[in-house]
Amino acid sequence: MSGACLGPAPSLAADRQAYTPAWVYLLRCADGSLYAGWTNDLARRLHAHRTGAGGAKYTQSHGKAAVRLAYAERCADKPAALRREAALKKLSKGDKEALAADWAACHRLTVRMATPDDAGDVVTLYNWYVTHGTQTFQYALSTVEEYRQNIAEVLQKAPFLVAYTADGRLAGYACAHPWHTRQAFAWDVETTVYCAPDVLGQGTGRRLYTALLELLRRQGYHNAFALITRPNPQSDAFHKALGFTRYGVEKNSGYKFGRWLDLGYWAYELNPPADPPAPVRLQLDAATVAAVLQQDPGV
Ligand SMILES: CC(C)(COP(=O)(O)OP(=O)(O)OC[C@H]1O[C@@H](n2cnc3c(N)ncnc32)[C@H](O)[C@@H]1OP(=O)(O)O)[C@@H](O)C(=O)NCCC(=O)NCCS
What we know:
The chain has 299 residues and is an alpha+beta fold. It has helices spanning 42-51, 57-60, 78-90, 93-107, 119-132, 144-155, 204-219, 233-241, 286-294; strands at residues 23-28, 34-39, 68-74, 109-113, 160-165, 170-178, 188-195, 223-230, 245-256, 259-269.
């Protein structure tokens, strides 16, 4: 058989770019003490400390639910992280406090509406997941120009939010697109959220999504849907924590990095169904947007 074929060459396991994270961190416990540890998955480790499921004995006996990340530092590999952890444990309380204060100052988040000029940062973050993960089914890198257009198009109907750290790094973004194009779908959106790999599990996603969902609710959208590739336990847990419910799974929906992946369908009711529904407001006034963006969900 000869002639044109449909679709790309399949993405194979060897196409995945390697990522071997190793971290040291300080946790602020309920009594103000600082606990030092290391991990290869900061988000999962933080969650374990807070819930007690596999967390350290120290944090379990020091108000585990109130434990907060006070400092995080990426290390080259596990041996480097273990060495750095030992050094952190030897620091005086004053030196640990100084590290934590600097870290907090650099990591303070500002959430704002994106502009097309944010496209370079957004595409860099998104492309990291294209090359390293299966969170997106995309194989090829997106371009800055595509994202300039994407941001401009999203903003005509919905928020495109970006969260920047005080030292100017994009920590994450969240936005919403029309769910389908036919008129009856006009009250539905598909939501998207991506956080930078070095801030996962630190509250950025919650801050962005809480604001996004509230803005969409005020615009008068009724349903937010999220498509989550499987496995992605972090995103599953995140969407569940934010109030989404999974209502379906499409088996073997996509093929990337040498494996078939399922697609989970998640839904969140933004407004109860009105009959008939009021038209969606394409834009909210600046004061409403500012009020929602200034609300901090306590992270
Ligand atoms: C999914 C994602 C957006 C979540 O954002 P985040 O900043 O890491 O998550 P947060 O710290 O705000 O967590 C909010 C809640 O989600 C849940 N959660 C997040 N990470 C979790 C984990 N690893 N294990 C269990 N629960 C987790 C917790 O309930 C958490 O609540 P808590 O803060 O009270 O513990 C982020 O991890 C991400 O960008 N992942 C990669 C890209 C991706 O998968 N995007 C979604 C595509 S559908």
